[in-house]
Design goal:
This protein is an all-alpha fold and 216 residues long. It has eight helices and two strands. A two-stranded antiparallel ribbon has the order 1-2. The longest helix has 35 residues.
Length: 216
């Protein structure tokens, strides 16, 4: 059986708010501010992703994929569920400590990081969708993609760090690193190879970075 990749991804992200609610309820952690903030951030991201997938879908995820590939996607994406488990249960794997005096500031920082990530990710995806609609076959080099060729991934990094850091544990960060190494970086390399067919790509590559503007 073969289905579009987006179906596996959308269903997983769509049920994430429910999974987080179940985890918090199981551990009766509704008085835990980090757990509630986590639900607000990761839960809203799942809903926004489904909305984006419907309104301006990414062609990358429109390709067909076998069931085994979809199961692999679910296993990778489920690494993100480690954080709500840690926060709600209080069971840490490789903890790092934030002093009580700065904990509120730290939570605020995570929320701001998430907001910037949402802006970068969804704005760049919208630009790409509209640009390909209006000027199909044209290389996108301006605005959100002027300094970074993968602004959407940069946005996702900020989004995931925004709620993963709330767990105050290195283990979820290791999970995110695995996803970056085995999914994001190969996709970015594949994208550059695809864009190299455009004559102006060489100049664009010199003026932009693969991920972080002005850095990398």
């Amino acid at each position: 059986m073969v289905l579009k990749q987006k179906y596996f991804i959308d269903i997983h992200k769509g049920i994430t708010p429910l999974v987080i609610v179940l985890i918090i309820s199981y551990f009766n952690a509704w008085s835990n501010i980090e757990a509630v903030v986590y639900l607000a951030l990761h839960g809203s991201y799942g809903i926004l992703w489904i909305t984006k997938s419907y309104l301006f879908p990414d062609k990358q995820w429109e390709k067909n994929a076998p069931i085994w590939y979809g199961i692999g996607i679910w296993l990778f994406l489920s690494l993100y569920w480690i954080s709500p488990y840690i926060i709600s249960s209080g069971v840490h794997f490789i903890p790092f400590h934030i002093g009580e005096s700065v904990n509120t500031i730290f939570i605020g920082f995570c929320i701001v990081l998430y907001i910037f990530g949402i802006f970068l990710h969804f704005t760049s995806d919208m630009q790409k969708y509209i640009s390909l609609k209006i000027n199909p076959g044209r290389l996108i080099t301006g605005h959100m993609f002027a300094r970074s060729r993968n602004t959407n991934y940069l946005g996702e990094l900020c989004i995931y760090l925004g709620f993963i850091l709330l767990a105050k544990d290195y283990f979820p960060l290791i999970g995110l690193s695995i996803i970056i190494v085995f999914i994001w970086i190969p996709n970015m390399i594949k994208k550059d190879k695809s864009l190299s067919r455009y004559s102006e790509f060489s100049d664009y590559k010199k003026k932009s970075k693969s991920f972080f503007p002005f850095i990398f």
